[in-house]
Amino acid sequence: MSTNSITDPRRQNKILRYKPPSTETNPTLEDPTPDYMNLLGMIFSMCGLMLKWCAWIAVYCSFISFANSRSSEDTKQMMSSFMLSISAVVMSYLQNPQPMSPPW
Which Pfam family is one of this chain's hits (predicted)? Predict the structure, then answer.
């Protein structure tokens, strides 16, 4: 019986045929990285008003969000996140113009 199941062509077709899932029927396959980086950038921007390293992390997160975004996404939210992170860097250096000291 085991030799019969190996040579059965119906079984081989089921094994060899693969259909990748389509994104139209399953919208959960979209990449959430830009949204997460956008959220992290806004959080670090708020913390960056007091800490310079948080402001620079916010700029980094907004660049990652911009690089991973699609052209069909909302550009207003991305630009507001980017401007918020740049303003956090500017405000932190206006508050304390000394350069960042190394942590060691």
Answer: ASTER
Tokens of 42: 């806004």
Say if 61 falls within a structural domain: yes
Q: Which domain holds residue 81?
A: 12-95
pLDDT digits (tens, 9 = 90+) for 36-85: 888 999 999 999 988 899 999 999 999 998 888 877 777 888 889 999 99
Under 8 Å between Cβ of 65 and 34 = yes
23 and 31 Cβ atoms separated by less than 8 Å: no
Q: The pTM is what?
A: 0.68
